[in-house]
Each structure stands twice: as C-alpha cells, then as structure tokens.
C-alpha cells in the first residue's frame, strides 16, 4: 500500500515538473516575442503590438509562477528544503549584488555597463549551484 502512495506522489511530482517546464518554455517564448517582435515581426513604431506582447508575457509569467508554486507543493519536505535554500541564496545574491552594482555604477566605479541579461543568467547559475550543493549536503 505504501509503495502505491509513493508511486502516486512520484507521478504528481513528474506531472507538475512537466507543466513547469512547459510554462517555462512558454514564458521564454513570449519574452523573446516581446523583446524581438518590434523590428522583426512588426514595426517598432507600433506600440500597441508591443504592449500586447508585453501583456501576454506578463500573463504567461503569472501562469509560470502558479506552475512553480504547484511544483513546489508537489515536492516532499526534503526537496522543498533544498529548493527553498537555493531560492534564498539566489534572492540574496540578486538583492545584494544588484544593489552593490547600482551603487558602484552611480559612484562611477564601473568602467562599462553590464547588459541586463547577465543578471537573470547569474541568478540561474547561482540557483543551480545551490541546488547541487544542497543535494550533496543532504545525501
């Protein structure tokens, strides 16, 4: 009986993970549409099309947040702990590092501007590293 419960929980976890992946791809696609659409797909002087693309991206982003919350709830306590720790570190790095960069830039201590795309990439790398560290630590 317990094996069936674990299998059922495993299926729920896989199902929520697949949905999260699909929402992630959808959000990335709508982000790319909002970023590159004005100029590639429509005239950049058509703000209505750009605003619609941004609104769609925001709506899909909200769907992604809901999918992530469902994914998190489907995990067992151990996995939630690892994910929570990784999110804490990523938020801290983003918050502290982001404001440190803003202050350094305002004081003209930064020789060149960093592309804003570096920020989510950095957070993604930090998150993945802390997930791996958490899994190794709790083995």
Oligomer: single chain
Report the helical percentage: over 70%
Task: Return the average pLDDT rounded to an integer.
Answer: 89
**Rg from C-alpha positions?**
19 Å
The biggest sheet, with number of strands, parallel, antiparallel or mixed sense and barrel status, is: none
What shape does the CA trace take?
A: flat
Low-pLDDT stretches: none
Strand content: under 5%
Structural class: mainly alpha
Q: Give the SSE order as H and E letters.
A: HHHH
Count of alpha and pi helical runs: 4
* Number of E-type strands: 0
Terminal Cα separation, in Å?
A: 26 Å
Task: Give a description of the structure.
By secondary structure, the protein is an all-alpha fold. The protein has 4 helices and no strands. The chain has helices spanning 2-40, 47-74, 77-106, 118-137. It is flat and about 55 Å long. The two termini are 26 Å apart.
Briefly say what this structure is.
The protein has 4 helices and no strands. The chain has helices at residues 2-40, 47-74, 77-106, 118-137.
Question: What's the helix and strand layout?
Answer:
Blueprint: H1 2-40, H2 47-74, H3 77-106, H4 118-137
Helix pairs in contact: 1-2, 3-4
Tags for this model:
single chain, 139 residues, mainly alpha, 84% helix, 0% strand, flat
